[in-house]
Here is the input.
Amino acid sequence: EIGRNDAVLSTLRKSLESDPELLSLAERRKVRELEGIKNGATEASKKVEQLNGEIGAIRQRIESAGGGRQLQDALRDYQRKVDEVKREYESRLLCYLELNLLKSLTEKVKQDQEPKLLKQARKWFERFTRGNFTLVIDGDGIFGRDAKSGHLKTLKQLSTGTRMQLLLALRLAWIDELEQGYKKLPLVLDEALTVADEERFAEIARTLELLASEEGRQVIYLCARDQEADLWRVETGNEPRHVRLGTHRASDIKLTPAARLRRRVPPVDGKDVLEWAREVGVNRIGYHDEPESVHLFHILRDQPELVYQMLDKWGVDRVGQLKILLGSGWLQAQRAMLERRIELCERWMEGLRKGRGKPLGVEELKSSGLLRSEKYLEEAAHMLSESGGDARVLLDALESGRGFARMRYRTEVTENLREWMLSEGYIDQDSVLDEDGRWLYVISAVPAGMEPGEARLVFSWLEDALGENEPGEA
Here is the structure.
């Protein structure tokens, strides 16, 4: 018995060798301490069992929710999408930078390689037209680019007065080229402005006076009517030396009052800028307007005096005109600021037109050849008129049969029209951007040198100037 007990004690002693303190308590018969340790171990065991049970329950809930694998797969998909969006953003940003660089390089090549004569002709043409047109010469011929619409017009499509301005600009450029290295001779114009209306006459008269003062050149203008000398005086504010060829001397001539004084733009004179803008006829911005047609006031609300000077002195009121004139070296002191704001305006207009196709007119619809019935063309014209040219309204009506229920091959006609509208830009598949979306679109490409505060300010002015309703709303 004693031997058996010794064997048990030896076994127990070995099992406690890893914990000398516990072995010491056992050898000294510290029963209470041992019982305390036992109780603590029992409680710990119960806690472990409880935690194991909770872990098991959690695992069961995860499995009932689709399993840990599905959750991990979902997390991986989410991270993959985030990475894809990041890569797409970086790719688009790089593409935008590359396009801007290419545009800058293209313009530089044009400027460097274009003959000086053409540059000078363009400069004069832009001044004569107050930036309403610029000269474009390429392999297809000579064109005038409309600053408000951006469209090219052939010489035949230009008005008689504008063609006359272009001809005079080319003549002046040719004279500049011939006179290189020689003394400047008097410039003689024989009824060169006779076909011009009073507004064009005034602009060219002011430009010729500028030419005379800048180059020290004498300008002699021959005309058959006293009214032209009269207009010159009224429009330029200067009294020309008027000589009647014949028996009378210059001192014998009395100028008659001008038939019509040029309409003056009312000065700001401390008025509220919005009240003044309404007084001078500043229009709102339409959802389908071109950036070139935006009124200058909407990007220069903080500088009404500058806007007044451009309206009153130069007759320049649109972003497109200003952009052209800046390219001719106009307003050097404010050029950087104006170019930044024009660029932001163009970016904002891009965002505004996202998801909105260009307006569709009935003539364009007829030219497609896809809707030939006079009855259905009349119905389509009514819908387009009511919706402001929204092609989606017409497509929705065709799909539902509203107004076109008895049309033969309606499904085929609808699909053909859809493809044509997409290819011609009457439908835009992008999502329409709200104001917050437009702001994000603008700040993703803020013009170089523009502070965020200035960008936000100009953005808010443009948003304020938007038309009252979305296209198609009453």
User: Anything to note?
Assistant: Residues 248-262, 469-474 have pLDDT under 50 and may be disordered. The longest helix spans residues 67-113. Residues 273-355+433-465 form one domain.
